[in-house]
């Protein structure tokens, strides 16, 4: 079960403190000690158990299925988010994608014919949902094989199998964020303009606080007007410190934040950065420089480098992953805005073509709208 129930706000750590302007001479006087890695533990628990017996369809259904309100799948009217279970919320978020797919597949449950025409239609449907060519081919060919092997005849069985195959593919990128207990654990957040970095940082902070961690945010977007203020709003909402400076070297701000977190024994630093396009080479190179400076403070940092992707981007997400990965060696992804797109299949394309762990998905603009990625829930959300 999803365990965010314990809220441990560490009073003095979570209080807002002054964000002092960065001093030019602020190289640490004493060589910062390499943080001792004591033990590693799961930062965010996975929503689902890992082992799933093969060939047991029932096992593919989310464990929390029993909590599901029967109307959640069909009813289009927005529910009170707080009342939705984890998988319901994901389902709600994937509604547009699911509608696009199941609109095309709706006749499937009743059809007796699984013929080439059906496979062609399915192929087009998956491509239209941005599953991508390679993943679509893999899914269809596996589906054909298993339909034959398992002697399936009707569309309902086939739909279950399709969901299972999709879930298996998505499992390649279902890997939770692991917190190594080093202080501070540094998360660097990168991505193109408007992908949802800053908003996601606000939501992620909330998740981490709910896990009992203390968090400090670094306003590393020193480029866009009002970026600092936007981040400060999220800091205030979460009651955590945001370190920012008036003038603009992102590396310096992040370095400053790490020092501050170290001094206050804060668990996690999340660093925002300015949006940049994969084609803006000098800006992409700047990220590598930021990473270098972070390593001056702690050579094991950043412990997590996350690319935030906007689901509306579609297939371009693959290219973004390639370019950012080359520049800063990504360790994780976050896919945002799944609630606003019919292109949620892009996650399957990523699992096939650029399988970097998808840590979280964004399914809305509110503070609780960031969810741990679960392959099973996602497949269920896409196909119902
Ligand atoms: N519907 C929806 N909107 C989102 C989600 N995540 C972010 N947004 C919205 O996307 C817009 C851009 O978000 P930001 O967080 O400012 O994006 P950013 O990547 O920091 O943008 P820059 O700093 O300009 O590069 C905002 O209006 C957010 O509310 C999501 O999961 N769902
Ligand atoms: Mg931003």
UniProtKB/TrEMBL annotation:
EC number per UniProt: 3.6.5.4
Keyword Metal-binding: no
GO molecular function, one term: GTPase activity
Reaction(s) catalysed (UniProt annotation): GTP + H2O = GDP + phosphate + H(+)
Gene3D superfamilies in UniProt: P-loop containing nucleotide triphosphate hydrolases, Signal recognition particle SRP54, nucleotide-binding domain
Chain spans, region Disordered: 16-86
Pfam families tied to this protein: SRP54, SRP54_N
Membrane topology: Peripheral membrane protein
Positions of GTP binding: 191-198, 272-276, 336-339
Gene Ontology CC annotation, any one: plasma membrane
Broad EC category: hydrolase
Subunit structure, interactors included: Part of the signal recognition particle protein translocation system, which is composed of SRP and FtsY. SRP is a ribonucleoprotein composed of Ffh and a 4.5S RNA molecule.
Listed HAMAP family: FtsY
Function comment: Involved in targeting and insertion of nascent membrane proteins into the cytoplasmic membrane. Acts as a receptor for the complex formed by the signal recognition particle (SRP) and the ribosome-nascent chain (RNC). Interaction with SRP-RNC leads to the transfer of the RNC complex to the Sec translocase for insertion into the membrane, the hydrolysis of GTP by both Ffh and FtsY, and the dissociation of the SRP-FtsY complex into the individual components.
Protein name: Signal recognition particle receptor FtsY
Gene: ftsY
């Amino acid at each position: 079960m999803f365990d965010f129930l314990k809220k441990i706000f560490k009073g003095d750590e979570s209080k807002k403190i002054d964000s002092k302007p960065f001093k030019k001479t602020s190289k640490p006087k004493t060589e910062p000690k390499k943080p001792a890695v004591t033990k590693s533990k799961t930062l965010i628990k996975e929503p689902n158990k890992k082992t799933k017996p093969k060939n047991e369809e029932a096992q593919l259904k989310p464990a929390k299925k029993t909590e599901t309100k029967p109307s959640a799948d069909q009813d289009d009217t927005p529910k009170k988010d707080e009342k939705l279970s984890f998988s319901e919320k994901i389902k709600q978020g994937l509604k547009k994608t699911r509608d696009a797919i199941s609109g095309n597949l709706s006749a499937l449950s009743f059809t007796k014919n699984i013929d080439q025409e059906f496979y062609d239609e399915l192929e087009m449907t998956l491509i239209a949902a941005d599953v991508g060519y390679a993943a679509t081919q893999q899914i269809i060919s596996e589906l054909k094989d298993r339909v034959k092997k398992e002697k399936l005849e009707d569309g309902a069985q086939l739909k279950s199998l399709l969901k299972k195959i999709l879930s298996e593919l998505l499992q390649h990128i279902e890997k939770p964020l692991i917190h190594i207990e080093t202080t501070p654990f540094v998360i660097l957040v990168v991505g193109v303009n408007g992908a949802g970095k800053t908003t996601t940082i606000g939501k992620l902070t909330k998740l981490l606080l709910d896990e009992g961690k203390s968090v400090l945010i670094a306003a590393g977007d020193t480029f866009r007007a009002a970026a600092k203020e936007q981040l400060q709003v999220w800091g205030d909402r979460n009651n955590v410190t945001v370190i920012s400076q008036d003038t603009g070297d992102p590396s310096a701000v992040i370095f400053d934040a790490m020092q501050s977190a170290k001094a206050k024994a804060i668990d996690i630093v999340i660093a925002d950065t300015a949006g940049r396009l994969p084609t803006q080479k000098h800006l992409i190179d700047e990220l590598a420089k930021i990473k270098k400076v972070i390593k001056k403070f702690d050579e094991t940092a950043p412990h997590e480098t996350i690319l935030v992707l906007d689901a509306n981007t579609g297939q371009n997400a693959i290219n973004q992953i390639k370019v950012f990965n080359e520049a800063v060696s990504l360790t994780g992804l976050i896919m945002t805005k799944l609630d606003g797109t019919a292109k949620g299949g892009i996650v399957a394309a990523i699992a096939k073509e650029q399988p970097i762990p998808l840590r979280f998905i964004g399914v809305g603009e509110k503070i609780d709208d960031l969810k741990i990625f679960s392959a099973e829930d996602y497949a269920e959300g896409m196909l119902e």
